[in-house]
Amino acid sequence: MAYEFRLTRRVEFADTDMAGIVHFSNFFRYMDATEHAFLRSLGFSVVTTQVDPPVGWPRVHAECDYRYPLLFEDLVEIHLLVIEKRSKSLGYEFRFRKLNSTPIVEAARGRMTVVCVTHQRGGRMSAATIPRTMAERIEVAPQEVLG
User: Fold this and answer.
1) How far is C-alpha 24 from the chain's CA centre?
2) 74 an active-site residue?
3) How far is CA 117 from CA 8, 52, 58, 86, in A?
4) Bridge partners of 102?
5) Please, what sign has the CA dihedral across residues 45, 46, 47, 49?
6) Where are the domains of the chain?
7) Could you tell me the CATH superfamily of domain 4-146?
8) SS3 for the chain, per residue?
């Protein structure tokens, strides 16, 4: 069972603002990409067609606190931790670490809540229980890791 995932990426020029700092909105893109990679590592996707009916994972809450600027070409690790698992939703925490600084610093910390849904006719969504095959592979991080 998995409760964490790490993704490392380099800050691209297009990620930065006129001051040369990663624009705040891109931290949400980084969180999104890390969650997608986490689900792929478990054999699924954010649009999961391996279960019947297929499910999706819309975001119902997202936040981010910024502590240290990330700049063009910085190497950043995004560490996803599962902090909550309910029957129809998952909560994630994301820790952003700037790897090319001495010492390594935590640049930001974010949170996101996603809800498992099925899609109805006309594009309407309904909350759904997380499919057993997925729920069996995801667990909440131990307290000592979250600490």
Assistant:
1) 15
2) no
3) 29, 12, 8, 13
4) none
5) positive
6) 4-146
7) Hotdog Thioesterase (3.10.129.10)
8) CECEEEEEEECCHHHECCCCEECHHHHHHHHHHHHHHHHHHCCCCCEECCCCCCEECCEEEEEEEECCCCECCCEEEEEEEEEEECCCEEEEEEEEEECCCCCCEEEEEEEEEEECEEECHHHCEEECCCCHHHHCCECCCCHHHHC
pLDDT in tens, 4-27: 999 999 999 999 999 999 999 999
Cα distance between residue 128 and residue 89, in whole Å: 9
- Determine the average pLDDT of the residues in 109-125: 91
Strand-pairing partners, residue 98, are: 76, 105
Mean pLDDT of 137-147: 95
pLDDT at 127 over 80: yes
Q: Which of 15, 17, 65, 74 is catalytic?
A: 17
Q: What is the mean pLDDT of the chain?
A: 95
Q: Which amino acid is at 63?
A: E
pLDDT on residue 123: 76
pLDDT tens profile 57-93: 999 999 999 999 999 999 999 999 999 999 999 999 9
